[in-house]
Specification:
Blueprint (H helix, E strand, L loop, with lengths): L8 E7 L3 H14 L4 E3 L8 E6 L4 H20 L4 E5 H7 L2 H5 L5 E3 L7 H9 L5 E2 L7 H4 L11 E5 L1 E2 L10 H4 L4 E2 L2 H13 L4 E5 L7 E3 L5 E3 H8 L7 E5 L8 H9 L6 E3 L7 H6 L6 H14 L4 E8 L6 H14 L3 E6 L16 H24 L5 E9 L6 E5 L4 E5 L8 E9 L4 E5 L1
Parallel strand pairs: 1-2, 1-3, 3-4, 4-5, 5-6, 7-10, 10-13, 14-15, 15-16, 19-21
Antiparallel strand pairs: 8-9, 11-12, 17-18, 17-20, 18-19, 20-21
The protein binds S-adenosyl-L-homocysteine, iron/sulfur cluster and FE3-S4 cluster.
Function: Catalyzes the methylthiolation of N6-(dimethylallyl)adenosine (i(6)A), leading to the formation of 2-methylthio-N6-(dimethylallyl)adenosine (ms(2)i(6)A) at position 37 in tRNAs that read codons beginning with uridine.
Subcellular location: Cytoplasm
EC number: 2.8.4.3
C-alpha cells in the first residue's frame, strides 16, 4: 500500500516595493514547493500567507501593518494558517514585528529566504523564527528547486544586489546590505533556463545594476556591458533591459553597448533625484546636475532614440523653491518618457532623518508641479510614436475581442487590434493612436 498523497498546501504571496521583490517572491514560491506548497491568488484559501515588504518610504512600511490587520480574521477562522513577513521591513524591524503583530509567525530578511522552508516547518512546530542574517552563502545557489514551470515572455533576473552608495535619505544599504554581484556562469545558466521555458525578454535587476562586477568564467571581473554582450548571444532571447542604474556607474563600455547591442532595448531608468547641486550634495549623490546632463548627451549620441525615465524626490530637507525650480529645469532639459516622483519621507536610521522636514503643503505643491511637467512630457513622447513602426513583444490578450497587448522597444504598452500573434511573438506594429497610459497599433 502506498501512503496517501496529501493535497498540496497553498501559499499566498503579496508583493510590495520594487521589481527585486517580485523576483524574490517567485524564488520563495519555488522554494516552498519543497514543503509541498503551490501558490494561490486567494488569501482566503491559503495555508500560508507571505507579505514581501518594502521599507523605502513610511507609507510603504505602514501598509504591512494595515494588511496584517485585515488578515487577522483569516487567522482567527483558521488557526493552522501561518503568516510570514519577508522583504525589507522584515530586515529593518526583525523581531520587533513579532512584538507589534501577534498574528505573525515568522520573519525572514531578503538575504535568508532560502531558509524559508525550514522556518515554515519550525513555525508549524510552534516556534516564531526570525532570520535577518547576511549570510556568507549564496542564497540563489541554496534555494530548493521546484518543478520547471513554463514562463511568460518576460522575466526578471537579479544579477546584483545591495548598495554601497548610502544616499542620505535611503534605507536600501541597510535592508539589502553591501553590493554583491552574482557570478557570470550562474546568471548565464539561469538565463538559458528561462529562455528554454519561454522567456523572450530579460530585465536584469540590481539596486545598482550598472555597478555589476561579477566573476567571469575566465577568472576576470566582468562589467554589466560584458554580461549583456554575453547574454545577447543566447538564441531565443530577443530583448534585454536592466534596472536600476546610478549615474556614477554609467561606464564607457555600458554607454557604448547602447549603440552596439541590438538586443539591448532603447530605454534607460536613470534616477537623478534632484536638479539642484546643493540638494544633490546633501543627498550624497556624489555628482552634479551638469554631470547627469552630459551623461544623457553621451548616451543620446550613441542611441538617439533612447527613452529615459527617472526618479525624483521633492522636499528633501533644506530644498528651497529655487532648488526645486532647478529640478524642473533639469526635467525640461532631459525630456523624460516617464518618471517616478516621490515626496521625501524621513526614514529612521538614515542621515537625512536628523534634519528638519519641510511642511507637507510644500511637498504636495512641488509634487503636483513636477508631476504635471512629467505628465506633459510622457504625453508628448507617446504622441511622437503615432505613425511610427515599432517592435512589440506580445504578452497577453487585451480586453477587446481580437486584441493583444505587449510592450514596445521603448517600453510603451501597446494594444494591437485584430492581432493573430500569440504571447511571446515579437511583431512589427504601426502605431495608430495614443491614450492615457498606452498606445494603440495595427500589426504589419
Ligand atoms: N536603487 C535604486 C532605487 C532605490 S529606491 C536607485 O538608487 O535609484 C527607488 C526610489 O525611491 C529612489 O530612486 C528614490 O527616488 C525613492 N526614495 C528612496 N528613499 C526615499 C525616501 N526616503 N523618501 C522618498 N523617496 C525615496
Ligand atoms: Fe538608495 Fe542611493 Fe543606493 Fe539607490 S543608490 S539604493 S537611492 S542609497
Ligand atoms: Fe523597497 Fe527594499 Fe525594494 S525597501 S524598493 S523592497 S529594495
Amino acid at each position: 500500500m502506498t501512503a496517501p498523497v496529501s493535497a498540496p498546501k497553498k501559499l499566498f504571496i503579496k508583493t510590495y516595493g520594487c521589481q527585486m521583490n517580485v523576483y524574490d517572491s517567485e524564488r520563495m514560491a519555488e522554494a516552498m514547493g519543497a514543503n509541498g506548497y503551490v501558490t494561490t491568488d486567494r488569501a482566503e484559501d491559503a495555508d500560508m500567507i507571505l507579505l514581501n515588504t518594502c521599507h523605502i518610504r513610511e507609507k510603504a512600511a505602514e501598509k504591512v501593518y494595515s494588511e496584517l490587520g485585515r488578515l487577522r480574521p483569516l487567522k482567527d477562522a483558521n488557526p493552522e494558517l501561518k503568516i510570514g513577513i519577508a522583504g525589507c521591513v522584515a530586515q529593518a524591524e526583525g523581531a520587533e514585528i513579532l512584538r507589534r503583530a501577534p498574528v505573525v509567525d515568522l520573519v525572514v530578511g531578503p538575504q535568508t529566504y532560502h531558509r524559508l522552508p525550514e522556518m515554515e516547518a519550525a513555525a508549524r512546530a510552534g516556534a516564531r523564527p526570525v532570520d535577518t542574517d547576511f549570510p556568507e552563502e549564496d542564497k540563489f545557489e541554496r534555494l530548493p528547486k521546484g518543478p520547471r514551470a513554463s514562463r511568460g515572455p518576460t522575466a526578471f533576473l537579479t544579477v546584483q544586489e545591495g548598495c554601497d552608495k548610502f544616499c542620505a535619505f535611503c534605507v536600501v544599504p541597510y535592508t539589502r546590505g553591501a553590493e554583491v554581484s552574482r557570478p557570470v556562469e550562474r546568471l548565464l545558466r539561469e538565463a538559458r533556463d528561462l529562455v528554454e521555458r519561454g522567456v523572450r525578454e530579460l530585465t536584469l535587476l540590481g539596486q545598482n545594476v550598472n555597478g555589476y562586477h561579477g566573476l567571469g568564467p575566465d577568472g576576470a571581473v566582468w562589467s554589466l556591458a560584458r554580461l549583456v554582450q554575453e547574454l545577447a548571444g543566447i538564441e531565443g532571447l530577443w530583448r534585454i533591459r536592466y534596472t536600476t542604474s546610478h549615474p556614477n556607474d554609467m561606464s564607457d563600455d555600458l554607454i557604448a553597448a547602447h549603440g552596439e547591442i541590438d538586443k539591448l532595448m532603447p530605454y534607460l531608468h536613470l534616477p537623478v533625484q534632484s536638479g539642484s547641486d546643493k540638494v544633490l550634495k546633501a543627498m550624497n549623490r556624489k555628482h552634479r546636475a551638469e554631470d547627469y546632463l552630459r551623461l544623457i548627451e553621451r548616451l543620446r549620441a550613441v542611441r538617439p532614440d533612447l527613452a529615459l525615465s527617472g526618479d525624483f524626490i521633492v522636499g528633501f530637507p533644506g530644498e528651497t523653491e529655487a532648488d526645486f525650480e532647478e529640478t524642473l529645469g533639469l526635467v525640461r532639459a532631459v525630456g523624460y518618457h516617464s518618471a517616478f516622483t516621490f515626496k521625501y519621507s524621513a526614514r529612521p536610521g538614515t542621515p537625512a532623518a536628523e534634519r528638519p522636514v519641510l511642511p507637507d503643503s510644500v511637498l504636495d505643491d512641488r509634487l503636483h508641479r513636477l508631476q504635471a511637467l512629467i505628465a506633459g512630457q510622457q504625453r508628448a513622447a507617446q504622441e511622437a510614436m503615432v505613425g511610427r513602426e515599432v517592435g512589440v513583444l506580445i504578452e497577453k490578450p487585451g480586453r477587446m475581442a481580437g486584441q493583444m497587448v505587449g510592450k514596445s522597444d521603448h517600453l510603451h504598452a501597446v494594444h494591437v487590434a485584430d492581432c493573430e500573434a500569440k504571447p511571446g511573438d515579437l511583431i512589427r506594429v504601426r502605431i495608430t493612436g495614443s491614450a492615457a497610459n498606452s498606445l494603440a497599433g495595427r500589426a504589419l
